[in-house]
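Quick one - first record:
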Amino acid sequence: MLHLKRGDPTLSSLELLAPAGDLEKLKVAVLYGADAVYLGGRQFSLRAGAANFDDRDMLEGISFAHRHKVKVYVAVNIYAHNEDLVNLPAYLDFIVRAGADGVIVSDPGVIEMILKLQPRLPIHLSTQANTTNWASAAFWQRLGVQRIVLARELSLEEIRTISSRVDVQLEAFVHGAMCMAYSGRCLLSNFMTGRDANRGDCAQSCRWRYYLVEEKRPGQYFPVEEDNRGTYFMSSKDLCLLEYLPQLAQAGVTSFKIEGRMKSIHYLATVVKIYRQAIDSYLQDPAGYQVLPQWLAELTKVSHRAYTTGFLLGDRGETATVAAASGNYCRLATFVGLVHGYNPQTGSMIVEQRNNFKVGETLELLMPQGDNRIIKVTAIYDRETGAAMEAAPHPQQMIELPFDQPVPAMSMLRRID
């Protein structure tokens, strides 16, 4: 499949937006096909559990993205308390000097500060602001917001109506984890652990196992659904809208967003590459767009819950969000190695071990461009000493694997389970 180059005018109307939980993930997202990435600093972001970016990493990340013609949006999307506002002006000034292409915000007070202190900084309204109707969208447009990240609770018809009534960019999540709380504004974590999800420190309490206990039967725990691991009735399925990209584009969505700043680089590379291929396919032949079986097969190789279309088709019932009885993640592949480059003297891939593997195994090679390749591990050599090894058991050990052609950096090796 032809991969359209960024900057091509045919791509100007659609954007693939990928998460960047740290500098390594930013580079993976860029190389595997994102048009833009979103990230958070060490403060003011709703993903405190991600590694996030210190000042130096943010400067390097934005520079790397811009060299590849990829935009960077910085999340400042906490619901701020008074003390959060003290350091905000200096942080906004840094974001602007770093060259960010926009800022993702949910708090009206923070938005007002940005409009006053940094009026040229584009504002994207976070999904946490739960924009679910055209009147709200029009309000934010009048205030100066340039893009609205739509609430996940919207149907296609509702998106069409909003698009027809406002002249503002619309962004929608198309893939990744969802939250059982309304537009992600959950109180469970704060109530149960003291960790405030609305200030970036969610403990993911909804993913825990829950049972019912009857008042007069202490110690007797009853699962809501029969399952020996417990029940996960508050744990949502994962969103996958690969099939509905044309409908979303026709409804007025111009930015397709992937969730996952806390996901692995293997997850990110796989999902970004598939959605890149899907968007390119749609742009090349809108009328003939079809979801290829190999795309769906690839999406099963990353850690995920059962996939759902969420509320997009107007489904308000349990099929939209409630996870399968076990609530467990499933995956069909294990990420075992990250390629750092190629050694032409030895004819070998330079690989950083990320999971145990050994000589004789068959692995799959995932590359930023092109089809996956199946390879046989015929030998493993320690990168530092050159000694032959039967296995690569040590985390992040640098090794070399014989291979018949150069392999680009950030390619990945995985075992099909």
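second record:
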Amino acid sequence: MGVAFPKDFLWGSATAAYQVEGNNTNSDFWAEEQAEGSPYADKSGDAIDHYRLYREDIALMASLGLKAYRFSIEWARVEPAPGQFSKSDIEHYRDVLLACREHGLVPFVTLHHFSSPQWLMRFGGWASPQVPELFSRYCEFVFQELGEHIPYALTFNEVNLPTMLRAIFTKIGIVPPVGIDAASWSAPKWRESAAALCGTTPDKYVTFHMISDETKIGLLKEAHRKARETIKRISPDTQVGFSMALSDIQAASGGEAQAEARWQLVFGQFADMAEGDDFFGLQNYTREVYGPEGPIPPAEGAELTQMKYEYYPEALGNVARKVAKTLSLPIFVTEHGVGTDDDSKRVAFIRRGLQGLQSAIEEGIDVRGYLHWSTFDNFEWNSGYGMTFGLIAVDRTTQERKVKESARYLGRIAQSNTMN
């Protein structure tokens, strides 16, 4: 007999507009792809053409037994120029929401999933003091038009990711503007080119991924609070939160202080941002182990994913427990997945991850849903199309969808609300 999950537990999968829709030409990420010397492995192009095929895709998810669909609305489409809103694009997203309803999928909407309008860079990007007001204005339009159809909303996806990316940025030649003035900020030619494509200069070209110092984090927190207030004023029944990317931070002998500092960096400093929210979005993929000198790489012979981090599904339940020690909010797992071309590994990842999550729930942790990343193999940002996270494969020549066993496996769990 299977172990039952809580009544009304939400089961589904997730996408991000930029990664699946295709041709988001007004986005800052499009500029980065097209920039001279861009480090992106591929150009997104048509992506998996979800902007056109969304109705077929939603019907497919429902046919598999899934009960919820997390997707994002692309700010750069909805507001292609400052203060100018696209009626055709908001009608598109209205129909996405209606298609979810028709097929029995609960929509879980993200208002900002990394990508921003190119015009925002001319204001100074995410370093601009105007950001909270500009983002709130966009949210106001979306909810005036669509609020009645949106039961759950994330303002931002992975607010803590920029702090995790600083080391990566440095390795590829970017010195992030953290505690230094713009005049001394150096950037490789491709970012200069990307800034020019957005109609601005490198000192103003501050993308979401560069929110890693105290001032910009403060602006982000204000943007979240202002957006939440706007959403709740227009649509009081919409449940509002944000998500964070959280590895299971573990300490080897003598590494306790290092692990604690890392947890504070990636979680603790953002915890106050959740005050007044309705839920917390937890996103987990792996663990990180710290010793006295810092991070310890995976042991020799440890299984790695396509992204080169450790295959460790058990991290999910552990992180839920850690979050619950600080936040007394319901938790939704808004992403959990694995980059692998061996779908049996994905099935096992889901099973083992859910076993850990179920154990945490039995201990009293209030977890309300599980949304797997990702619905489809899609555009994985600077890694291009080489990373395969999807429950459903896509032939990008024909855009044909091919259901994997992992999709059927998760669908069976969703249908029964139990895991054998």
